[in-house]
């Protein structure tokens, strides 16, 4: 029962719900041109986004740099963490509110070479710190399924834009769940690849040993197509992996019969909303029905992972964000009276409260006398988590479970209690600690809000994750559902 | 010149930290040029500026150069080394942290042998090196010309450095200077650093403490920065020793601090105390992979090592019969050794004569002109020409000096100068015999006295002949002819 409305002004329903492959077919056969496509989606952004606030900037669509690329003529938006030369790149912060990137990120370069057409920069939690997209200098983003709900974060703008069919796909980054959690909350498909699969060059750093770029799209098939263009070794990123990128699309249709799916028993506990648990279990039943076997596995340390993450990521962030000092670029306070004043006021005024909180935590964790108790112990915990995943993968090929403990929560629900907010990441963070690839796949709704199934793979096993997700999506239509606002709000907003 | 002596009853302990800029063409983590002297910020790319999103990529040339240094001092080259971030805010530190190696430096251990004193007083000392690690240089803050503001030049930001940390093995300023000079020579021999102290390519910080003679425990140390010549290093350490001993002898206390040497006032000044020092919050740099080196790579670098100062000095002694002191002076810098070797490259050259000239006339000339041997107005080839003319008897040593001065002042070739000035030595026996006969004829009294046994008068005759020859007669030939004529056979 997909909700769609062929009469709305925001473009042909078939077009906005089409897969990237279908759009490419339309372009190839001359049914429409790249300019037509860009105009359709730009128009949707124009009319629909004011009620979502999913974009921070719009970009005038350029001619595709390549006519033959696999993404030639396909519109998209970047999470506003990716530098694209000549575009404002804010990272959701006042600190960079007016900063125009003077160079291209590798991801942007590759998507451009592939012919993709940039339409805008997506809203996000400031410096990718947040799980609700409420920490943006440019305002909160609405969840297209329910305006009272958060879209998740930090790639909330990207997920909301794809869910509302403003673009066929969006880039995202995932440091502790920032692709998977908003994808789950917004009912779209997202993949966070293995650490090192996608170059981080030109992607503004939050926590360098966790940050990983990825894709949010409507389906696993679309994710496969886009990831194939983004991924690969980059000599400008020393941590990028020098190994070939498989053809993710080619592997989608393989059968998953005999596949061993690990179910982490600790994840289906009291911490999990039972309704979410039911939806996830139903999704796992579908995998079984497709021929997969399930096996119960032990992943006992989600809480340790959470604690370790919230020391290590802030520690790295406290260092990564030192460059925002008002000296060379970005925000600078008015009339500093001396150097100390310049630093203090620039950073006090330029950063939001969550960013400051993490800089403080990270600074503390690295300080003399605390390093061993916090940073070093957290590194040990990280190794422990990684070891447990490795052991689990001796018993299974992929791991399946929930993305989040609950569906999208209400705006403001956690704003008074950051620790509660951090708990939203309890199932996604362990994957980042271990550097594994993870996906979020739409798996139903709880009270009208989407729920995601998380799939976790071995290092560099993205092809298998995409294959499993695609096979699942052959059996269900959750990913084809469109929020009614995406169909109607064009009309609602005609006056505004 | 210096009247300094270590106050009696006290022992001095010195350790040095030397920063040597590596002579790579591009920076340690970016492709920007490292050349000195460009317009401010013309050689700072996105990575050097620390723009949002940029990432470092390690310059392998810097790894090779640091390893060459380690091999040269017989250190261990780490098979795995890694980078850490040292966090602090400063306007010329673009990222808010310096990428350096704390936990796992690339070079561990090793030692440098130095000699202080001359001749019988010469003493050898072995100074142990704790470690040498790779790191990036910061930019420069320019405090002048900006009307109450500070200008930032990031051309230097990201220039590769090795920081060479010694053990506190030095016991007086002379040893410290000798050690610094030796390290300076080694990096130049290796071609890994241009050694220019004025431009800051080679910077020395000295950790100095004093303790009562016989004490085991180290005294509180101070670190002296901003020392940009060997002479200032000596002076800064001397000043600091006197300052510390004065303090302690008058019931005061040495405060652990960083001090700046001010060459104009010849004193050290407090920069910051330990309490004011930053907590650098070191942690492993997540943007860089560990540097892993295999034996094969390290051995290939070992094979690249040139002849180093100590080995060269040994060879000069055994091959040329030079004294240890002379060999030490001639090998003290790569440029001096290269000059000397270019002078003696010619077949039949006389190494001892060349050594005397390089250490005598050439050194005096450089001193007078205040320039380095690389800029010597008399190139090695011309000095070789000159020494050839001395060896073949065309020139006396004295005339040689005159030609050398002419070469220094106006250039030209040795033979042209000899020709133009008529300096050619008279070696023609006939001409000398004629002059000798004249002198004998003109001084019958002296001839008689000489023949009567006054041997000392021989010098008188030599003088007379030389006078007649206007100094150009070959002294050896004059001696021979005179002896023959006077002794009557």
The helix content of chain A is: 25-40%
Secondary structural class of chain B: alpha+beta
H-E order of chain A: HHHEEHEHEHEEHEHEHHHHEHHEEHH
How does the major sheet of chain A shape up?
A: 11 strands, mixed
Main sheet: strand order of chain A: 1-3-2-4-6-5-10-11-9-7-8
The CATH superfamily of chain A is Amidase signature (AS) domain
Mean pLDDT of chain A: 94
First-residue to last-residue Cα separation of chain B = 56 Å
Number of helices of chain B: 16
Helix content, binned percent of chain B? 25-40%
Instruction: Briefly note the structural class of the backbone of chain A.
Output: alpha/beta
Strand content of chain B: 15-25%
User: Could you describe the largest sheet of chain B, including whether it forms a barrel?
Assistant: 10 strands, mixed
Please tell me the total number of domains of chain A: 1
Which residue ranges of chain A are poorly predicted, with pLDDT under 50 across at least 5 consecutive positions? 1-10, 489-496
Q: pLDDT below 50 for ≥5 consecutive residues: which ranges of chain B?
A: none
Strands of chain B, total number: 17
Strand content of chain A: 5-15%
Named CATH architecture of chain A: Alpha-Beta Complex
Number of domains of chain B: 3
Describe the structure concisely.
The complex is a heterodimer of chains A (496) and B (489). Chain A has helices at residues 13-17, 20-28, 34-48, 106-113, 156-163, 180-186, 220-230, 274-289, 302-320, 339-350, 353-366, 372-392, 418-423, 429-434, 462-475, 484-492, and strands spanning 55-58, 75-79, 117-122, 169-173, 189-192, 213-217, 260-264, 293-297, 398-402, 438-446, 449-457.
